[in-house]
Structures are given as structure tokens and as C-alpha cells.
Specification:
By secondary structure, the chain is α+β, with helices and mostly antiparallel strands. The protein is 56% helix and 16% strand.
Length: 170
């Protein structure tokens, strides 16, 4: 490959890294064609961009984007990068997909400015809540006291109405 071509590919990878808030490094080399196609379709359906890259090109692209030196130990063998703006989406996809096949195996991940190294981190990554899930939790917590007050007022109003109705009947 010519030096100009490598530079173009490195720039494309760096642009993709900057475009997404998180990415996962996975091992998919021993998947057959059918399982690879199935994984690509699942990624597309979930809004995850899947890219198979050479480790040397990925390493250089990550150097352009910032300090990702913690991930360099994970860049051995074939590397598939899963890009997403939802932190736990690729982890859920990998966990679901490993029920069908032993791969893809998680090598490492960069999520919300944190590094997760090794396949044993998959459960922790699945448990990470997305931005929308956190916003929903905060809204539910904020609505809860208001709902309790309204509920108490409605039940108290019903109780007072019942007492007044009983007194009027007597």
C-alpha cells in the first residue's frame, strides 16, 4: 500500500473516531461469512458502525485523536472496531451475538472517556446506562414527589368529600 493511501485511510479512521463518542475493539477473525454478515446486519440495525482495520493504521489514527495508549496492548491479531454514540449498545450486541457463536470477543472499549480492557469487562459495559436512559431516570425522580403530592391531594379530597357526603345524609 502506498504511503498516500495509508494517510487517507488513517485520516478516515481518525474522523470516524472523532465522530462517535465510544468505540469497541473486538476479535471477529474466525467468524464464517454467514455469521459475519449477520453481525454486520445487527450492527446496522442498532446504529453501530462496524469497521475492520489494520492495527498499525488504527494505532496511528488513535495517536492523531488523543491519548489512547492504554488500548495499544489490545491491538493484536485481527481487530474489528464497533463505533456507537450509545455507550452500551455494542456491549449488548456482543453479548447477544456470543449466544450464537463464541465470537465476537471483546478486546477493549473506550466509553465515556473511560477505558475497559479485556473480555471480562463486558458485563460492566452492558450495565452502563445510555444518556437517554439517565435522562429518563432523572425525570422519573423529579416527577415522583410531584405525583405523590397530587395523589395525596386527590385522596384527601376524596376522603373529605366522603365525610361531607356522609354528614349530609344524616
Amino acid at each position: 500500500m502506498r504511503k498516500e493511501d495509508k494517510k487517507t485511510i488513517i485520516d478516515q479512521i481518525a474522523a470516524t473516531v472523532n465522530e462517535y463518542s465510544c468505540f469497541y475493539l473486538a476479535e471477529t477473525a474466525s467468524l464464517n461469512a454467514e455469521l459475519t454478515s449477520s453481525l454486520r446486519r445487527a450492527c446496522f440495525k442498532e446504529g453501530i458502525k462496524m469497521m475492520v482495520v489494520k492495527n498499525s493504521l488504527l494505532r496511528e489514527a488513535l495517536r492523531q485523536c488523543g491519548d489512547f495508549s492504554q488500548l495499544e496492548g489490545s491491538m493484536k491479531g485481527s481487530t474489528t472496531v464497533l463505533f456507537s454514540n450509545v455507550g452500551n449498545a455494542p456491549a449488548k450486541l456482543i453479548k447477544e451475538f456470543t449466544k450464537k457463536a463464541p465470537l465476537p470477543a471483546l478486546k477493549a472499549a473506550y466509553v465515556e472517556e473511560s477505558f475497559y480492557i479485556g473480555a471480562d469487562q463486558l458485563d460492566a459495559l452492558v450495565a452502563i446506562k445510555s444518556k437517554n436512559e439517565l435522562i429518563a431516570d432523572v425525570i422519573a425522580l423529579l416527577q415522583s414527589p410531584a405525583k405523590n403530592v397530587v395523589s395525596a391531594l386527590q385522596s384527601a379530597g376524596g376522603t373529605i368529600h366522603g365525610v361531607l357526603q356522609t354528614l349530609a345524609e344524616r
